[in-house]
């Protein structure tokens, strides 16, 4: 039953939403069936108590005096799903006053209720203009209001001049924003999944913007335009800096999902630059992470991915913002998945202690955590390896290397990760045999490090040998 569509939706609702749904189901306008209310109440009670949901138990709760009938139960659950989905639509409409007024505006015009129509049309414009949002829907709503005026003028046979240019402009702006947004999404996705996509009418949109440069005074147009240039002209960093400035200075102009997409685009660009060896982008990346935390665009619901958590700490360390990172690690710990919370917290505290040269604090943190995630466990073991070497605890290090090899075999780590960690162990063993006073040998070792792929600890090997 856990895979049921109905159970999935009900489990996802908040307590407040469940109470509202209960009121919705008890309203005779929406539902007159008592058995559906009983089914809903039983399911919510069991879900709240985290109890197992067996079909027979559900049927008995709704029909205590009847023999179990699987077909009847499935039909009943199907009816309830339809009502729950209708509830979600109604709730969505209730939270969008602009949409409600637009529907009333159209309805009043069709009914010939002129005064009510005029009032609703004015309210739509006021609600739209009062919002700080300036995404495509804002311009689309302006176009729809003008379209309504056009229809109304035709019905009323008014002779006054209609603002035809503004009418055309609002539709053009709406289309340009949507086309650039779509293009950025497709190009950003193409950088991850190597798929060619034909983007129709893009050349025409770009030519139009070049001809009418005043369009770039519209923040939303400019943001997506420079986002597009960032994606296709990655060597020219000026596009990225303009794009980043627009994103960071105007978060209120975008819906949360759109802002999340823009942040992801900028973050991916920084990561590509870092992978290409431009370490100046650690600071740029940290700026984006900080703003993403402030606007909550990096959160999934009210949760922070442990991978994002690790990446933010790594970026802060590289940006030499250790105090900020220490505050971050503690502040955002409660937002991590409970299953990985303590291990992620301990590991990142250990990374910060290592970055500060406090090895005595780092080692116990690495040893006490229960690392259920194999890759996080290997990352922790690698950090311990580096500490043992830098503390000159050679016997401990040699035992640690053998234990890591055994762990990789036992856990069946495969692919890129297996090769990478075995390379780290192999290069560490070579490092232990290296005569640090032999310049030729050191040069050869550094060349081996450079040529070994994959090897995520190249920088560390280079640093300890050069020192």
What does this structure look like?
- By secondary structure, this protein is mainly alpha-helical.
- Among the domains are: 5-94, no CATH class; 97-162, no CATH class; 373-467, no CATH class.
- 73% of the residues lie in helices and 1% in strands.
- It has helices at 5-12, 15-26, 34-48, 55-62, 70-94, 97-111, 114-130, 136-156, 164-190, 202-211, 219-232, 237-249, 256-275, 281-294, 306-318, 322-331, 341-355, 359-368, 374-390, 394-410, 415-433, 439-451, 458-466; strands at residues 299-300, 303-304.
- A two-stranded antiparallel ribbon has the order 1-2.
- A hairpin with a 2-residue loop joins strand 1 and strand 2.
- Helix 1 (5-12) runs parallel beside helix 5, helix 11 packs parallel to helix 13 and helix 20 (394-410) runs antiparallel to helix 21 (415-433).
- The longest helix has 27 residues, at 164-190.
- The mean pLDDT is 92.
Could you list some keywords that capture this structure?
2 strands; mainly alpha; 467 residues; single chain; 1% strand; two-stranded antiparallel sheet
Tell me the overall shape.
flat
Spans of at least 5 consecutive residues whose pLDDT stays below 50 are: none
The CA-CA distance between the termini, in Å, is 61 Å
Total count of helical runs of at least 4 residues: 23
Q: Can you list the strand order of the major beta sheet?
A: 1-2
Tally of strands: 2
Order of helices and strands: HHHHHHHHHHHHHHEEHHHHHHHHH
Based on secondary structure, the structural category is mainly alpha
Query: On the 0-100 scale, what is the average pLDDT?
Result: 92
Strand content bin: under 5%
């Amino acid at each position: 039953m856990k895979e049921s569509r109905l159970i999935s939706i009900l489990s996802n609702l908040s307590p407040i939403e469940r109470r509202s749904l209960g009121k919705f189901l008890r309203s005779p306008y929406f539902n007159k069936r008592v058995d559906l209310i009983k089914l809903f109440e039983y399911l919510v009670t069991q879900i709240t108590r985290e109890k197992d949901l067996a079909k027979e138990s559900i049927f008995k709760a709704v029909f205590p005096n009847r023999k179990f009938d699987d077909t009847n139960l499935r039909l009943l659950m199907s009816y309830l799903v339809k009502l729950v989905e209708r509830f979600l639509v109604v709730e969505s409409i209730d939270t969008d006053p602009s949409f409600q007024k637009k529907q009333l505006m159209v309805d009043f015009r069709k009914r010939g209720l002129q005064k009510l129509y005029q009032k609703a049309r004015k309210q739509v414009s006021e609600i739209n203009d009062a919002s700080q949002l300036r995404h495509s829907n804002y311009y689309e709503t302006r176009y729809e209001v003008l379209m309504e005026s056009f229809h109304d003028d035709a019905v009323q046979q008014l002779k006054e001049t209609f603002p035809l240019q503004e009418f055309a402009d609002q539709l053009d702006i709406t289309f340009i924003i949507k086309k650039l947004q779509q293009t950025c999404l497709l190009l950003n996705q193409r950088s991850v999944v190597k798929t060619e996509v034909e983007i129709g009418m893009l050349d025409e949109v770009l030519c139009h913007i070049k001809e009418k440069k005043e369009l770039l005074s519209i923040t939303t147009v400019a943001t997506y335009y420079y986002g597009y240039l960032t994606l296709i002209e990655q060597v020219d960093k000026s596009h990225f800096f303009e794009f980043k400035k627009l994103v960071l200075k105007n978060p209120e102009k975008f819906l949360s999902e759109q802002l999340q997409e823009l942040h992801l685009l900028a973050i991916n660009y920084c990561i590509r630059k870092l992978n290409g060896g431009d370490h100046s982008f650690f600071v740029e990346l940290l700026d984006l992470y900080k703003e993403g935390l402030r606007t909550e665009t990096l959160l999934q619901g009210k949760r922070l991915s442990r991978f994002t958590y690790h990446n933010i700490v790594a970026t802060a360390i590289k940006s030499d913002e250790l105090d900020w990172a220490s505050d971050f690690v503690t502040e955002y710990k409660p937002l991590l998945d409970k299953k990985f919370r303590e291990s992620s917290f301990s590991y990142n505290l250990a990374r910060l202690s290592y970055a500060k040269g406090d090895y005595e604090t780092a080692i116990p943190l690495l040893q006490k955590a229960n690392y259920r995630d194999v890759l996080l466990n290997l990352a922790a073991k690698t950090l311990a390896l580096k500490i043992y070497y830098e503390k000159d605890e050679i016997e401990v290090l040699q035992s640690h290397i053998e234990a890591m090899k055994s762990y990789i075999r036992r856990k069946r780590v495969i692919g890129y990760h297996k090769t990478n960690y075995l390379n780290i162990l192999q290069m560490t063993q070579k490092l232990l045999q290296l005569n640090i006073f032999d310049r030729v040998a050191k040069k050869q070792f550094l060349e081996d490090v450079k040529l070994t792929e994959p090897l995520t600890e190249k920088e560390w090997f280079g640093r300890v040998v050069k020192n």
